[in-house]
Amino acid sequence: MVAGIPLWTIALVLLIIFCGYMALRAIREDYKQEQEYIEREGKVYMDRIQEARSTRSS
Question: Where does the chain cross the membrane (predicted)?
Fold first, then answer.
């Protein structure tokens, strides 16, 4: 017992905090990957539009 609190309670609180941290980290990584995907698909779309414009004006 640490300061009258059972050790298992302290371990449980620490595990909850750790799980929250890992969830936030996963959310941040997922957001980053999603933004990269959106950027990549946007570039493909813009390239296709540019190609269509160049063939139309030729």
Answer: 6-24
Which residue, chain included where needed, has tokens 């059972």? 6
Query: pLDDT below 50 — which residues of the chain?
Result: none
Distance of CA 40 to the CA centre of its chain: 16
Q: What is the pLDDT of residue 16?
A: 99
Other CB atoms within 10 Å distance of the CB of residue 12: 11
Q: What is the DSSP letter of 4?
A: T
For residue 2, which phi and psi values (nearest 5 degrees)?
-115, 115
pLDDT at 1: 78
Q: Write phi, then psi, for 42 (nearest 5 degrees).
A: -65, -40
Tokens standing for residue 13: 């609180």
